[in-house]
Amino acid sequence: MRRRDFIGIGAGALTAGLAGCTDSAGQNSSPTAEDTPTDSADDTPTATPEDTSYSVSIEPMGEVTFEDVPQTWAANNGSWADMGVALGLDAPKGVWLPSRYHTQYYDEIPGVSVDASSIKKLWGSGGVSKESFLAMDADVHVMDPNFLLNRGSWEQSDVDQIESEVGPFFGNSIFSRSYGWHEDYRYYTLYQAFEKLAQVFQRTDRFEAFEQLHADFQAKLAPVVPPRSERPAAAVFWGSGDKPEKFYPYVMSGGTSFKQWRDLKVKDALANSDVKDFHASRGAIDFETMLEIDPEVILMRGQEAKTAEEFQNTVVAFMKQHDVASKLTAVQNGDVYRGGPLYQGPISNLVLTERAASQVYGVDEQLFDRQRVADIVAGDI
Fold first, then answer.
1. 239 and 311: one domain?
2. What is the sign of the dihedral through the CA atoms of 326, 329, 331 and 334?
């Protein structure tokens, strides 16, 4: 039995006990049974607490029951955190790495902001601390427990303890589809996951409004995508710091982290190369290997904390002066850009996809209504 369930049942039993004491005292103090209405438990109406519980199903947890709408929450990363912001929730109490939840994207949206300094960092050098979950005391943990078991050094008993003593887990590792341990249960698209979270927080009206906004956005994307023969081949690499010389390659595959590139039908320069995807190999490449592929566009992850200008003045400037990197077609043509984050939700996806259309196809128009996003977040449906 979960801790909060137990508290609820205990309170009900206590109420019933107090009612019984009052009834008995009333009967004993009555002048006569005929002249005074009886206070017996059989005759006195008692208030029955309204059942507010509901259930939402998601893999791998299955059906998760909530006694009432959660008030506090924690998230694994910026994908789910951004969904919560889109639903008008307060910021999560914690995420794996706040530095990878890029709240600056909200600068594009009037009246929408998140104080990243208020979000607790859950991931440390030894993985994820179970004590941090006990300290947060969140009503729901929006994250895939299998990630904790396979990447966070947890045991099943740790998951069970948090569910029993604090609150349930509810989530799925949607950002990547390359984990072997995720092969035996389903993934969700960004909007499938978003709908599930909206059901948890009972804010499906906001989800439906975003769903329509997203459909309109997709319709605007179609005309800006050129024919396949005219689309440049791009490659996504992770390279951190101002002067990176080691890069982790990412093949554009399933998962929410590549949604903007899939929606824009960008050709992947790594897809048919001999370079192995980072998730499969955990290996890095250097500029020499990058030159063998020589993508027309280079999209550099690990650089989202920089503005476009800062990125050009540091990373791109370094590549232009590098003996090997300077030979890359993308460097010579000025087509090296920030490649977006690992995690994105409904708001950040709008911002990042519009930015990507500008980077790869030279689109210079706004493709979604900022004020409409702000209105939905505020509940002005």
1. yes
2. positive
